[in-house]
Amino acid sequence: MRDTFVGVLTELAPAHPELMVLTGDLGFGVLNRFIAEFPDQYLNMGVAEQNMSGVAAGLALEGRAVFTYSIGSFPTLRSLEQIRNDICYHSANVKIVCIGGGMSYGPVGFSHHATEDLAMLRSLPGMRVLSPGDLWEAAEVTRYLLEQDGPAYLRLDKSAAPLTTRHGEMFQPDKIRVVRKGSHITLAATGGILGEAILAADTLADEGIGCRVLSVHTIKPLDTNELIAAAKQTEGIVSIEEHAVEGGLGGAIAESLMEAGVYPGFFVRMGLRNTFSAVIGTQAYLRHVYGLDAASIVHTVRTKLGVGAETRVTC
Amino acid sequence: MTFSPCPDSETLANRIRIHALRMTNLGGGSHIGAIFSCADILAVLYSGILRVDPEDPRSPRRDRFVLSKGHAGAGLYAALAERGFFPVCQLLTHYQNGSDLSGHVSHKVRGIDVSTGALGHGLSIATGMACAGRKSNMAHRVFALLSDGECDEGSTWEAAMFAAHHRLTNLVAIVDYNRIQGIGRTSEVLELEPFADKWQAFGWTVREVDGHDHTQLHQALKSVPFSNSSPTVLIAHTTKGKGVSFMEDTVLWHYRIPRGAEFEAALVELEAGK
Fold first, then answer.
1. Span A2-156: which CATH code?
2. Chain centroid to CA B183: how far?
């Protein structure tokens, strides 16, 4: 997703002289082409995320469209007050980009994971929150954000779901994508973990359980209508995210459905439960350990439906 | 864009103090000591140093001013009102329900670009503005007024390092160095000395003035940038609570609200200084 993002920015930069990319001294080898072609639109801010966010606000107040870029929680939690006060309160045109959403940087350790970011960023007034699930979505939301004024948070995953784009599909901003149709239960995922949801849906389909798979690439604003439809038309909703269960995708879905007065038959939030992602391992391994891989999703669905407890998990 | 004529800065400073005293008294606001500390700096800035136009407050050619020590908001509101950015009577809405004049400075107010209040933010924002100005080959300058207390914040020094690295000569920081922060003296809380040496070591060109001497302030600020290869910092040696005898150089008057006999006595002293 990172390379897709940088590729799109590099492609669009000539038409957007107001675009600036600020990095917190990360992106070795990744940003090279952008830097070489557009040196005046690039700043390495050093390892100083608070200043990066404040400078981004100052640049934006002078008419620039600024992307700040770093890993994990560095561009967000480290400078959350600058994001709140300097960027959001001033409606400054700053897009905060995290590469390594969730547990992307698996064995590097929890310090480089972003597992509370969605909750924190989502609560900020005026902040859009985007978390694409595949490379097509990553490219489309990048293009979309460059055209939008105001603050946004873009969470990019190292993993990406297989492309689910339909022929001729046009990106619809702020709309949940139904990547699999189904009327039995709903799997709602955000980020690259969408791939696990799709795998789980394949397994469950073999057992006669039709999953509707939703890619929630935009968590704020949230497409409540699609969620209401899922709650009404399927037996229950499972939210899946590489994030704490509090305040992220699952929290957002619960809030919006409760407020709409629509209650799914069952609702399960799959994510980290009051724990740091402290185990060492690859992103795939950590998904297994923390019960977020396809097998875990299948198990969760079977348990909720009261079926197949004796059936061997095949994915 | 026309730049309006300079009022007498000494008169403006006195009016800023009287307005701020009335505003904090009426609203029950604090930080009067911190406002009095920088009243002379604000008065000099708004008496011919800053190229700003009350008739065209968003002109792209204007000098930018970031009040990083946002708790002195009442002082900046007073300066702007006296310079005609909005009616002086609006000052009395400070701290009142539904007002735009919050205690910490707000960009909802005409003539103000940036809201601050959390310390250590302003220099980064000003640095971003200066960076944009440089990239666009604009001639305006960006001024930021900092408290000494917010030089405890690491973010201030992140900005200082960045601005010097990029030789932002269009950036001017002024530090209101009254040596008293929230609940103690800087020498007791976190020693800033050798303060000028710190800025110099970070790559800034430093001058020091008496922050209540208008001649010194005028001369220094008229001559910015101090260098054609570095950002400028002016360390203004000031006295917290300056202008009211019983407030001067006391920790108490950082937060104390001027009320009753203290308010009356302060007003008498300031009125006598007109």
1. 3.40.50.970
2. 20
Q: Do the beta carbons of residue A54 and residue A89 sit within 8 Å?
A: no
Three-state SS at B4: coil
Does residue B108 belong to any structural domain of this protein? yes
Look at residue B1 and tell me if it is in a domain.
no
Contacts of A60 in chain B (CB under 8 A): 128
Do A177-305 and A2-156 fall under one CATH topology? Answer: yes
Q: Which among A46, A48, A59 has CB closest to B131?
A: A59
Phi first, then psi, for residue B173 (nearest 5°) are: -100, 140
Adjacent-strand bridge partners of B101:
none
**Tens digit of each residue's pLDDT, chain A (315 residues):** 999 999 999 999 999 999 999 999 998 889 999 999 999 999 999 999 999 999 999 999 999 999 999 999 999 999 999 999 999 999 999 999 999 999 999 999 999 999 999 999 999 999 999 999 999 999 999 999 999 999 999 999 999 999 989 899 999 999 999 999 999 999 999 999 999 999 999 999 999 999 999 999 999 999 999 999 999 999 999 999 999 999 999 999 999 999 999 999 999 999 999 999 999 999 999 999 999 999 999 999 999 999 865 444 444
In CATH, which of 3.40.50.920, 3.40.50.720, 3.30.479.10, 3.40.50.11060 is domain A177-305?
A: 3.40.50.920
Query: Does some domain include residue B3?
Result: no
Q: pTM higher than 0.90, yes or no?
A: yes
Find the distance separating the first CA and the last CA of chain B, reported in whole Å.
Answer: 32
User: Looking at the partner chain, which of A46, A54, A89 has a beta carbon nearest the beta carbon of B155?
Assistant: A54
3-state DSSP call for residue A86? helix
CATH code for position B101: 3.40.50.970
